[in-house]
Amino acid sequence: MARGYLLTVRAAGRTVQRERFDTLEGALDALQARGLGFAEAPSTGTVSAPLMRDFDPVQQVRARLELKGPGRVRAGVDVRGDGSAEAYTGRVRRRLVQLAPGESAWSGLRRVLDP
User: What are 55-65's pLDDT values in tens digits?
Assistant: First the structure.
């Protein structure tokens, strides 16, 4: 079994990219760089689902960046359609990372994952 950290990036529900890193720091740097690229893109518009309801940009997930590693590391960041981001830990049972005032999703995730 391969060691290290696996970063999986899912964009627009279709595109999947995977990359391995030897260190947590390297994986978090890549997660932040890719996530900021999605967050800086223009805001998406409201999406209407047939026979359903409308989804505002903040309700849409533009990209999901997931990190998996040794020691049961499971975490990630969802970048929303309006460019906002929220960090979480866990996979099946996701727990949002509570951010300190002025803290970004990226730095909050680093705080909870860094030993």
Answer: 666 777 788 99
